Amino acid sequence: MTLSDALSLLRDILTFVAALLAVIGVRAWHRDFLGKREIELAEETLRLFYQARDSIRRMRSPFAVGAESSEVTQEPGESDERFHWRRTVAPLWKRYSNDMSLFAELESTKYTFMARFGVDTRESFDAMRMLTNKLFTAANMLVLTANINDDFDIADPNDNARMAKSRAQRRNWEEQIWEVGEGDLVNEELNRIIENMELRCRTVLDRRSWFQRSWEQLKGWWVAPVGKTGS
Questions:
Q1: How far apart are CA 159 and CA 29, in angstroms?
Q2: Are 44 and 108 in contact (CB under 8 A)?
Q3: Which domain holds residue 73?
Q4: What's the average model confidence in pLDDT over 180-185?
Q5: How far, in Å, are 16, 20, 22, 69, 180 from residue 8 at the CA level?
Q6: Of 132, 126, 129, nearest to 92 (Cα)?
Q7: Per-position DSSP letters for the chain, written without gaps between them
Q8: pLDDT tens by residue, 61-76
Q9: DSSP string, 28-67
Q10: Do 145 and 166 form a contact (C-beta atoms < 8 A)?
């Protein structure tokens, strides 16, 4: 083999190696790009869940200001008891309206998250929505049943039993709406929802951290030197 043939062969080998490295680099860049999108989606979703948790806890605060129910006026023919409960639960609706865009964003993010990480990931989103709906259902029921005791005859033992059951149910609805401190069942459910979503997202974030280190090494070995050579 002549020197010219050897140089030609060497040039072909270097061209092949350069092409192979270019393919590897493009694929690594593509994985890095997808990885960035996944980590951004995971971080954004966690942010929304954390904000939703704080919003729900604000909504359930038993401490209200007069402005939160000042717009509620007694309707013609409405009983004082029903009016009282409409005013009582008004802060819940008022606080939710202030953060309505947050919950709308959380719901819309669900479909992007499902498309990226699987249909089964909707469970945490649906659980958060159902928990919020449960609060409003409890508030509505307190208003709708405000005068239910008027239908009972306290002299009737059967009515007394039904009245006690009704009062217990109404206390349960109140405990769903307002935070009661330690042992609060709604807070426990809310924390479980957050923990499940954290588990989903942390899996993505941990995998991304490993890939980030690998990609940084690859850039240090090949991408960076190539870039410097071409400058």
A1: 73
A2: no
A3: 3-230
A4: 85
A5: 12, 18, 21, 86, 82
A6: 132
A7: --HHHHHHHHHHHHHHHHHHHHHHHHHHHHHHHHHHHHHHHHHHHHHHHHHHHHHHHHHT-S---GGGTTT--PPTT--HHHHHHHHHHHHHHHHHHHTHHHHHHHHHHHHHHHHHH-GGGHHHHHHHHHHHHHHHHHHHHHHHTTTGGGG--TTSHHHHHHHHHHHHHHHHHHHHHS--STT-HHHHHHHHHHHHHHHHHHHHHHHHHHHHHHHHHHIIIIIHHHHHHH-
A8: 988 777 888 889 999 9
A9: HHHHHHHHHHHHHHHHHHHHHHHHHHHHHHHHT-S---GG
A10: yes
What is the token pair recorded at 138?
């409890």
- 39 neighbors 204 (Cβ within 8 angstroms): yes
d(CA 130, CA 181): 21
Tokens of 198: 């954290």
If you count them, how many residues does the chain have?
231
* Encoded tokens for 31: 């994985």
User: Token pair for residue 142?
Assistant: 């307190």
Which token pair is 166? 């009704």
Domain count, the chain: 1
Average pLDDT, the chain: 79
User: What does the alpha-carbon distance between residue 104 and residue 124 come to, in Å, rounded to a whole number?
Assistant: 15
pTM beyond 0.85: the answer is: no
